[in-house]
Amino acid sequence: HRNLLGLAGLAPHELLFLLDEAEQWVELNRQPKKRADLLRGLTIINAFFENSTRTLLSFEIAGKRLGADVVNMHAATSSVKKGETLIDTALTLNAMRADAIVIRHASSGAVRLIADKVDCPVLNAGDGQHEHPTQGLLDALTIRRALRARGETEETFSGLKVVICGDILHSRVARSNIHALTTLGAEVRVCAPPALMPEGIEQLKVKAFHDFDAALAGAEVVMMLRLQLERMQGQFVPSPREYRHLYGLTLDRLGKAAPGALVMHPGPMNRGIEIDSNVADLVGEVGAMQSLITTQVEMGVAMRMACLDVLTRKARAMEGWA
Ligand code: CP
C-alpha cells in the first residue's frame, strides 16, 4: 500500500495530479447535496494524538462525503492515557482492519513508525516539526485557484514569489509548503527571528530573511505562521508586542508586498500577534489584495477527499510514491 507521509521527494506531476483530483471535490462540496459514495464499505480511522480543529474535522467530513465509515480516536480519551505505547496502539488499529489511518502526533517520525506496522495506507495529518502534507497540498490548491481566478492559467507557480513568515523552526506547515512550492517552481522566501530559523534551511532551496520588510518586497503570496509557544524549548522569543512590531502582518506592512498580494495562514491564528484582524479578514475583489484564510479551510476538505480517494481506491496512480 501507499502512504502520504510527506511532500519531500514528490515530483511536480505527482503534486499536480493530487491538485487536479481535488478540483472535482471543490465542485461537489459547493452543491446542496455533497455525497459521492465511492468509498462505501471502507473504514477510515482518524487517530489524533495532538489537538486539531481544521485537520480532524476536514478529514472526517472528507471521508463521510466519500461514503466511508469514519471513526475518530482522540488520544486524550484513549488507552494512550493508561500508558499504551504508540506501536501497540498502531497494532490495535490495524487489527480492526481499517482501510486508511490518518494520524497526527507531536513527535516527528511517529507517523512513519505507525505506517511501518500497519497493512493499510497511512496519511500524515501533522507529525511534530516534520511535515503536514495535506496542508501543503491544500495551500498549493488555494494559490492555484486564486491565480486562475485572475486569468493566470499557464505555469501558475513558476517564479511565484511566496513569503513564509513566522516560527519556521517548529513549523511542519512551512516544511510541507516549502517542498510543494519549490518543486512546483515558486521562489520561496522564509522569514523568522534568528532563534526560530532552522540551521541550514537554505538547503531546501529557499532564501532566508530576518527582516520581514525586506522579505516582503514584491511578494505575491504572504503566508503567516502561528507562534507555537507550546513547542518552545528555551528559544529566545520576542514578547508578543515586539513580535508584532518586527514580524506581525499589519495592513501597512502588507503594502510592501506586490499589488494584489494574497494573504494566507494555516490557522489557528494569534490575532494581533502574527497577523492583524484587518488583514486576516481582508475581503478583496479578484486582483486586489485579499485574505484566503477561509478558502484554505474550504480547500482542506476537497484536498483530503482527493488524498483519501487516491490512496484507497486509486492506489495504482501512486505507484512509486513514498
Ligand atoms: N492548520 C491546521 O493544521 O489546523 P488544526 O491544528 O486546527 O488542524
Automatic annotation (TrEMBL):
InterPro entries assigned: Asp/Orn_carbamoyltranf_P-bd (IPR006132), Asp/Orn_carbamoylTrfase (IPR006130), Asp/Orn_carbamoylTrfase_sf (IPR036901), Asp_carbamoyltransf (IPR002082), Asp_carbamoyltransf_Asp/Orn-bd (IPR006131)
Catalytic activity annotation: carbamoyl phosphate + L-aspartate = N-carbamoyl-L-aspartate + phosphate + H(+)
Enzyme Commission numbers on file: 2.1.3.2
GO molecular function, one term: aspartate carbamoyltransferase activity
Binding sites annotated in the UniProt record for carbamoyl phosphate: 54-55, 104, 132, 135, 267-268
Keywords (A to Z) from UniProt: Pyrimidine biosynthesis, Transferase
Pfam family, one: OTCace_N
Name listed for the protein in its UniProt record: Aspartate carbamoyltransferase
The organism of origin for this protein: Novosphingobium bradum
